[in-house]
Each structure stands twice: as structure tokens, then as C-alpha cells.
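Input record (one chain):
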Amino acid sequence: MRRVLEWLTKHVALCGAALCAVGIGLLAASVLADLGRWTYYGGVVLLVAGLALLLSRVLRTPLVLAAVCLAVALVAAGGSWLALNGLPDQHEHWDETGAPSHLTEDSFRQDRVLFAGGSARDLATGAVLWTVPEDSHVMTTTDETVILSEPVEDGEGTRLIARLIDTGHQVWWADVGEDPHAIAQHDGVLVVSSRSGTVGHDLTSGVELWTSARPSGTECKQRAPWIPDSRDLRQSAVFLPTPGSDTDTVDVHRVGDGEVLIEGLDCSAAGRIVGDVAVEHGTDSIRGVSVSSGETRWEQEWIRDAQPFALPDTGDVIHIPGDEGQYHSLDLVTGEVTPTAAPDGWVATHDEIRHQRAEVLWQPVRRGAEVGLWEIGSDRVVRIPGTPSLGIAEADVSGWVAVVGSTQDIVGDRHRATWAVSPEGEVRGPFAGGNAAQDGAATMADGVLRIGARVYPLD
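The corresponding structure, as predicted from the sequence alone:
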């Protein structure tokens, strides 16, 4: 050991040069062969050690040598970290305080005001404009007001309260049952379903226009009203159970006055209202019934390879997932069914549109090593570069969608990332994190993305 130390002391420059060479070799190998960050950092350490030995042959003053070596170490460490991780997040954002909100299900955005997590904020800065009590939830909005379900002061019960969007000033309130949900909004009337039943409220005054002791749903499923997480309130009718203890069908009621429009629908698989058509997916067939007249417009035998419980639409067309990435497009005017597939060799590996409710439906597709989003019903595919796989974290009724994948750094390590895609197909990102407990799942609203506590205004 003594002889080794003596030899190293006599050949400091040679040892320094050797360490530099090995360090540079490890850095090159970690980048060219994707060996990962530990090989990369090991190369940095060896390179800094080698440079320190070489400097010791030039700088004889200990203090000067220590200062220069420290500077070299800091520059090397900072430069290597920056090369590996890039610049800190440059996307404009602000941090949401309190419990993170679920943007698609419990927020609204109007112009430059975003209401989420119990607070109305300036969209650009995150400045709080006004707040409401905890456990309040967004029902819907009008041009001037936001309608919320809010707990009463003594904690016993819930009220429906309309507040001015710009100030939070209360306009009206109405009693509402436990666990209320907004079901539909049409011509100034909001239908709310709770454990106590269904009520149609006038959106100007909160007055009850009609009531039912039965709960209602935006859609129906397995012969009962159903409320999906991401729902479109823009419909003129809602589903309620058919009266009677021995019935297993649903009726369609008009939003404005609660009048029964269609009786006895058998939505054993699924049912929706799109425009003036109530789509009834029964045991053996799918049928389109006019909401205004109650007459059957068309009826088809059920598609053999179709997957049940999914009736996403674009305009007047229902898109039904089938086998092997194929879709069946059902024209709601004629009842005609045509096969639909992604264009130009793109393949949909797994369906992700079944619960989307928007004017634009986005489906992840793959072509070789490329991944992207296919706009169902069109020939447009939006490519998402740099990620080997893609999944939809959340799709908003506005047509905005948050997609999650991963980016790769210079040494081959993968990092979770999120992209936001607008209804027009414009890609924003990547944003760091998303869809994991460590960094917070991504959630999407109209032009607003949140990952963890970070809120990104996108337009």
C-alpha cells in the first residue's frame, strides 16, 4: 500500500489524466448507450477528481487550489445537472392552495375567472376573487352566475345557491336534498337529482318548477338512471325510473316542466339523449326514439362485436367501440351503421372514448413507433412526439384533453409527462408529472390544466 501511495504521489498528473479519460468515457457511454443517470453522475465525479489532480500540479498554494477546485466542482455539477434535467419548468403557472380540485367534475371557467377547490380565482395569476364554504360543489353556470351546492351553516343539509361570477354575491338560494347532482340545463331550467328525488329549478330565481320523488340521470344504464363523471348538461330531457315497484324501465322527462315524453325505455345496456333522439341500447337491439314525438325513428339489431355501455357521440353520430380497434358509427338521423377506423395505418390499441362527452372525441393510436390522438369521425391524427405510449388522463366536455406519457432524458431514463391538446388539435407541453401519486394526477378543464397543485392557464 505504501509503494502504491508513493507511486501515485510521483505520478499525480498521469493519475489525473487517467481519471479524466475514464470520466469522459463514462459520460459518453451513459449518453450513447442509455446507461442511466448513475453512470452519468459517476463520470462527472471521476472527471472532477481528475481535474483536481491536474490542477494540483499547477497551483501550489493550498487556498487557491481549494477555491479553484471548488469552482470546477460547482460548474461541473451544475452543468451536468442542467444537461440531464433541462431548465426548470418554464410554463406559466400558479399553485393552488388547499385540497386539489377535480377540474372536469367540479369547476367552471368563464373568460378570465376559474372556480375550483372552493375559490374563484383570476385565471392568469391565481389571485383569489372570492370563496365559498368547504364541501361546496359546482352545479352549473349562466352568463352571470355560478350555481353551487353549499352546506348550510349548522352543517345540517345542503342549499342550492346562485352567486355572481365576478363578486360571489348571493343572488338566490333554494333547499336541495342530500348529495345533489346537476343532471341537465335547458332554456333557463336546471334539473337537480339528489337522494330526495328530482327538482327542476328556474335558473333566474331558484323557484321549483317541477318535482319528482324519484332520482334522475343524465343517461341510463342497466335499466336505471345513471350519472357519468364527465357529463354534458346541454340536453332537453332526462331519465327517471318508470313508476311502479315491478317495472325495470325508464321514462324520458322534459327538462322545462317534467312532462313525460317517452315511456318504458329498456336501456338494459345503455341509453343517452343526443339532440332530439333518445338512444336505447336494449338486450338485442339499439333504437332511436324522437324526444319530441315519442315515435321510433329507426331500429337496428345489435352489432355483434360491439362493446356495451358506451355511447359517445360527435354531433349526430354515435361511435361504438368494437373489436381490434375498430368502431361502429351510428347515424342518429337514419340509423345507418358504418365501420370506422383510424386513418393511414394508425391503430387504436384500446378504447378510451367510451366515457367522453364532448364535441371532439380523442382516441390514442399508434403507428409503428409513433403515437398520437385520433379525432374520432375524422382523418385527423395529432402526433405526440417523444413518448413511447400514451393514455388519456382526462377529457373535458369543452374538447380539451390531458394525455399522459413520458419523456426521455439524455441518458435514457424516462420521466412522467403530460400534454394538453385543444379541440383544434394544438399540442401544449410536455409538462412535468401527471397520473401518479408522487406528482398528482392530471386534470383538465376548458383551457386549464392542473398537475398536482400546479395550475397552467393555456389560453
